[in-house]
């Protein structure tokens, strides 16, 4: 899976494969252009202005208080990228935009767009960062309450789709009663696990800035009596003991290698014998050959934002095995390709 230039026109297809077309220019120009156009439209509220139905550029510009000509050219760019359709001078949302880029959609990525915009601006100029190798983990930088909210909601809306399939793939040897979701943030994975197992009480260990926003999402989902929060830094806290299941989802890519090894040891101590440890993170096959776009880019991305990286699967397995885990198994999460799910057992 890679982002790239796609065409259904057979002549253009031939041109693209012939090596004559300036592919790096097309990928960078359109890739960057598309990202900026979509993020800007989201930030300005352009998509919301069409939520009720098709609208003219004049009406859209007026409702978001922007210049009419400038708004029209942005709308036209979004038509080109299939985020909007245009007919008889009226603009309407494409189905992709309606599902993912409206505030009130269950799968809204609006908060995520704002958060990503913020993150990418924070690592500019990138050339300087690469020259110096000097980065600090954004989780431990000062952040406004709105910044934490966008982070938590952005990930939470994405997790809403994944929670059910993930919960279905967690092996348990008896009806589980206690789940510890480390770095569980928005709480949606805990909620999905509680839905699947009516016997479970879940506890989320996460940084203090995250908690109020996670609690709000859990309350919206109607699970605040079964999903509770414990503020703390997973690197310095002991995690507790006697849990049936421990989740560590999308956290390792923010940790240094020795912190990942320690996290695996803490998970082992937190589980009862026979309990299940589940790690979810970016897929990365490892080795020293070619890399997928997910693996290669996520090495860079997580380095830029936290000084860590997406870890190769053999390395993650080794941390788990060194901690004492057995029966390591790999699951595939269908709704979001590029995620690795590893389950492991604390031997009974
Ligand atoms: C990428 S998010 C993943 C959220 C959720 N588990 C998921 O998979 O969607 C990483 C989570 O780990 C939390 N986190 C990162 N570093 C942490 C630390 N040192 N202690 C506690 N929580 C931490 C973040 O606040 C955030 O909620």
Give a structural overview.
This protein folds into two domains: 10-99, Winged helix-like DNA-binding domain superfamily/Winged helix DNA-binding domain (Arc Repressor Mutant, subunit A, Orthogonal Bundle); 138-345, Rossmann fold. 47% of the residues lie in helices and 17% in strands. The chain contains 13 helices and ten strands. The radius of gyration is 22 Å and the shape is globular. The model has no long low-confidence stretch (mean pLDDT 95). S-adenosylmethionine (SAM) is lined by residues 139, 155, 159, 183-185, 206-207, 210, 233-235, 249-251, 254, 280.
Short description:
The protein is an alpha/beta fold.
Question: How many separate structural domains?
Answer: 2
Main beta sheet: 7 strands, mixed
Shape: globular
Distance between the termini: 39 Å
Defining traits:
348 residues, alpha/beta, Arc Repressor Mutant, subunit A, 7-stranded mixed β-sheet, 3-stranded antiparallel β-sheet, 10 strands, 17% strand
SSE inventory with pairings:
Blueprint (H helix, E strand, L loop, with lengths): L9 H9 L4 H22 L10 E2 H8 L3 H13 L3 E4 L2 E4 L1 H6 L9 H13 L3 H7 L12 H24 L9 E5 L5 H9 L4 E6 L1 H14 L5 E5 L11 E7 L7 H14 E12 L10 H14 L6 H11 L2 E7 L6 E7 L3
Helix pairs in contact: 2-4, 2-6, 3-4, 6-8, 8-9, 8-10, 11-13
The structure holds S-adenosylmethionine (SAM).
């Amino acid at each position: 899976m890679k982002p790239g230039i796609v065409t259904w026109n057979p002549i253009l297809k031939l041109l693209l494969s012939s090596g004559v077309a300036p592919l790096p220019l097309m990928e960078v120009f359109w890739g960057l252009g598309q990202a900026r156009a979509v993020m800007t439209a989201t930030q300005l509220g352009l998509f919301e202005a069409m939520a009720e139905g098709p609208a003219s550029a004049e009406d859209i510009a007026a409702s978001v208080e922007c210049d009419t000509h400038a708004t029209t050219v942005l709308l036209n760019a979004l038509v080109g990228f299939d985020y909007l359709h245009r007919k008889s001078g009226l603009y309407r949302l494409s189905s992709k935009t309606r599902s993912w880029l409206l505030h009130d959609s269950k799968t809204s990525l609006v908060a995520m767009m704002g958060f990503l915009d913020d993150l990418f601006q924070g690592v500019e100029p990138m050339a300087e960062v690469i020259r110096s190798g000097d980065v600090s983990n954004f989780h431990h930088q000062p952040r406004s309450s709105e910044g934490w909210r966008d982070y938590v909601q952005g990930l939470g809306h994405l997790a809403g789709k994944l929670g059910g399939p993930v919960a279905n793939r967690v092996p348990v040897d008896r009806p589980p009663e206690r789940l510890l979701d480390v770095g569980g943030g928005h709480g949606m994975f805990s909620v999905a696990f509680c839905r699947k197992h009516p016997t479970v009480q879940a506890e989320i260990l996460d940084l203090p800035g995250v908690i109020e926003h996670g609690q709000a999402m859990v309350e919206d989902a109607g699970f605040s009596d079964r999903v509770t929060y414990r503020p703390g830094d997973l690197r310095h806290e002991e995690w507790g003991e006697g849990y049936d299941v421990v989740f560590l989802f999308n956290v390792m890519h923010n940790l240094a290698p020795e912190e990942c090894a320690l996290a695996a040891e803490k998970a082992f101590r937190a589980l009862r014998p026979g309990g299940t440890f589940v790690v979810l993170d970016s897929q990365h096959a490892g080795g020293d050959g070619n890399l997928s776009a997910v693996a290669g880019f996520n090495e860079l991305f997580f380095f830029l934002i936290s000084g860590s990286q997406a870890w190769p699967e053999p390395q993650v397995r080794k941390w788990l095995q060194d901690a004492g885990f057995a029966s390591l198994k790999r699951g595939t999460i269908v709704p979001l390709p590029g995620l690795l799910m590893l389950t492991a057992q604390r031997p009974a």
